[in-house]
Automatic annotation (TrEMBL), chain A:
UniProt domain Response regulatory: residue ranges: 7-121, 126-239
Any Gene Ontology biological process: phosphorelay signal transduction system
Pfam families in UniProt: Response_reg (PF00072)
KW Phosphoprotein (keyword) present: yes
Species: Plesiocystis pacifica SIR-1
Protein name: Response regulator receiver domain protein (CheY-like)
């Protein structure tokens, strides 16, 4: 159990907004730090472990998406929430590629935001979700996020997924078979059989389950499209 | 009902007098032509219905003609009568600028029904051939060879003139579309940037309200005003969303959905208050192949307008029905005062509003959404006086087979 106060780093160039967020989170006993720019955030970031980072997109200097990429470089396992006045398709896709936990609209839905903070602080069960389809990936992230005690870690590429897996001890993984930078199956094998000999449940999602018929032992195959309740049920059994 | 089930005839741009002068000059159409044609009219009169008959026979030999002429035999009979009238007025003249305007208005009718311009040249050529036949078969003994030649030249010039006006009308309509698109794009870019920037101060207001709300929970008066501010912030946010949606002009991502489902989710999202009765008796089983998210946005806008148009108890009447030709319509009507006659023609233009608090984007967004689906939106008033907006869906939005293409 994580008994230290939840820690949140907020990055936005609007001081009035960050002041308000600090006030709201302070009341909840959350440790909050504020950065007015991406550059400042990069300085503060290494000071400690953060349960959650929240960043605006449009800022002077490096923007929120670039910041996200750099933070994920330094600490792939830290969840980063991207907030923006308008999430167009490009912003959404770029955020997903760089490993954002989610993209949310401004003005922030504060109730949902606080709920998310509670979730990240309470989450004991990290689950890896690897899919390059950002709509599906963010849906899965949402669905899994609603499960008690599950912290989803979305990744759009094998590369990010491997870096995440190197620092987060995932309890389970949900992996798309076809990824832009390679085959999800190899990752599934690596995750399923850890170096220390322990095993983790891994589900591979594919539109062509026939191609995998009987090929893998230990790796579970889920045919796309799948009914969401089945998936949730299956994951609940796993975690 | 004044609300059109058919698309209405609205005015399009008119050719300039200078255009008319130049084109008559170029064609060489003059006073003698007018006189010759006027004298020809009584001689041709008896044969005009036959020419009209033949004209539509040719049109219907085209395999896709019934996509344009969808109103059945009744419409064809009406078209034949108007075509006879067209021939009569063409021969009678006077061939002045007013004539040009009237012809241009007829041109706009064809632009509006989406008839491609290329058919016009062929249609007019058919007309030329038929008129030669009238002269050669029925008026042979009325003209000697030179007179016959002169009459044919005059007729050719008349058809050249009519074709030129027709094509000019198509060009003006295309120019108009382009201008509107450019205007919308400019408004869109500006709106997107303003909307985006506005969300920052809104975020501050909204988060401050969140903090205040907890502090003043015991004071009903403060609470009431905080809720008022919060509602207005939500309203601003919704306006920004509409602006950005319009600016983005997203192409539809279609899926199968019924009209009833669309109405139901929209009614829920629009939060129609208790005081308004919703009559969905005229919502028929109608399967659509449209972008559900965009359509819901359009319908929510219409429902919100309908609510705001009525103080106290009111009614919203919903209609959805297929047309025999495979197209369909959806309509939202209210029991309010209706659209004013002076605003009606421009009601779908962005930044036109009749409400004190409106931004004039709601109906513009509705229009943009339906047009992105290849349909059209029309507005009018119902007999009882309330406003009605009708979405005309083209046949591609309405699958005939159970599975979409
Ligand atoms: C030389 C070419 C043509 C002439 C002179 C002509 C003439 C006319 C006239 C006078 C009208 C009545 C406009 C009014 O409402 O006042 C009309 C309407 C119409 N025309 Fe044409 N037309 C021509 C070509 C065509 C062609 C090629 C088509 C279709 C394939 C077509 C389809 C229609 C339709 C659908 C209407 C509208 C009807 C309605 O109100 O129900 N026309 N046309």
């Amino acid at each position: 159990m994580n008994h230290a106060p939840t820690s949140v780093l907020v990055i936005d160039d609007n001081d009035d907004l960050t002041e308000n967020i600090v006030e709201i989170l302070d009341d909840l006993g959350v440790y909050v730090r504020v950065a007015g720019s991406g550059e400042e955030a990069l300085e503060i970031f290494d000071e400690r472990r953060w349960d959650l980072v929240v960043t605006d997109v449009r800022m002077p200097g490096i923007n929120g998406i670039e910041l996200l990429a750099q933070l994920k470089e330094r600490s792939p396992g830290t969840p980063v929430l991207v907030m923006t006045g308008y999430a167009d398709r490009d912003t959404r896709a770029a955020a997903h590629r760089s490993g954002a936990l989610a993209v949310v609209h401004k003005p922030l839905d504060l109730e949902a935001f606080i709920e998310l903070i509670e979730r990240v602080s309470a989450a004991e069960t990290p689950v890896l979700i690897v899919d390059d389809d950002d709509a599906l990936c963010s849906n899965l992230t949402d669905i899994l996020g609603e499960q008690q005690g599950v912290l989803p870690h979305p990744a759009a590429t094998l590369e990010l997924a491997r870096r995440l897996a190197a620092c987060v001890d995932f309890h389970a993984a949900l992996i798309d078979l076809r990824l832009p930078d390679g085959d999800g199956l190899s990752l599934a094998r690596e995750l399923e059989r850890r170096a220390d000999g322990s095993r983790r449940p891994v589900i591979v999602m594919t539109g062509y389950p026939e191609a995998l018929e009987g090929a893998e032992e230990g790796v579970e195959v889920l045919a796309k499209p799948f009914p969401v309740p089945n998936l949730v049920e299956r994951l609940r059994e796993i975690v | 009902m004044q609300t059109p089930d058919r698309l209405p005839v609205t005015e399009g741009a008119n050719p300039e007098p200078s255009f008319f002068e130049e084109v008559t000059d170029y064609i060489g159409f003059g006073a003698e032509d007018s006189v010759r044609l006027r004298e020809f009219l009584p001689r041709a009169e008896a044969h005009l219905p036959h020419v009209a008959e033949h004209f539509y026979e040719r049109i219907f030999s085209h395999p896709r003609a019934d996509q344009v002429i969808s109103g059945g035999q009744e419409q064809v009979e009406r078209l034949k009568r108007t075509l006879v009238e067209w021939m009569r007025s063409g021969l009678a003249g006077p061939h002045d600028y007013d004539y040009c305007l009237r012809r241009s208005r007829i041109g706009h009718v064809h632009v509006r029904i989406g008839l491609p311009q290329r058919y016009m040249v062929t249609a007019m050529n058919g007309m030329r051939v038929d008129f030669r036949e009238v002269i050669d078969e029925h008026c042979r003994n009325l003209y000697d060879a030179t007179e016959r030649e002169a009459l044919i030249v005059s007729l050719e010039r008349l058809f050249d003139l009519d074709l030129a006006i027709m094509l000019e009308t198509y060009k003006l309509a295309a120019d108009e579309r382009l201008r509107r698109r450019e205007r919308l794009a400019t408004i869109g870019q500006l709106a997107a940037s303003i909307g985006h920037d506005l969300r920052n101060p809104l975020s501050v207001v909204q988060s401050s309200l969140y903090i205040l709300r907890r502090r003043v929970a015991e004071d009903p008066r403060s609470s009431k005003h905080i809720e008022k501010i919060a509602n207005q912030v939500d309203e601003c946010d919704a306006i920004i969303t509409r602006l950005l949606e319009m600016a983005r002009n997203r192409p539809p991502q279609r899926s199968l959905i019924t009209a009833r489902e669309l109405f139901e989710t929209s009614l829920a999202a629009a939060a129609v208050p208790e005081r308004i009765r919703v009559d969905d008796g005229a919502v028929e089983d109608l399967q659509l192949f449209v972008d559900a998210g965009l359509f819901k946005q359009a319908l929510v806008n219409l429902l919100i307008n309908a609510v705001q148009a009525q103080e106290g108890a009111g009614i919203i009447t919903l209609t959805a029905r297929p047309n025999p030709d495979g197209s369909a319509l959806m309509r939202v009507a209210d029991g309010g005062p209706g659209f004013g006659t002076e605003t009606l023609p421009s009601i779908f233009e962005p930044l036109v509003t009749t409400k004190a608090s409106g931004t004039g984007l709601g109906l513009a967004l509705v229009k943009s959404i339906i047009e992105r689906h290849g349909g059209q939106a029309t507005a009018g008033n119902v007999d009882e006086g309330g406003a009605a907006v009708t979405l005309h869906l083209s046949s591609v939005s309405v699958p005939t087979a159970p599975t979409p293409p």
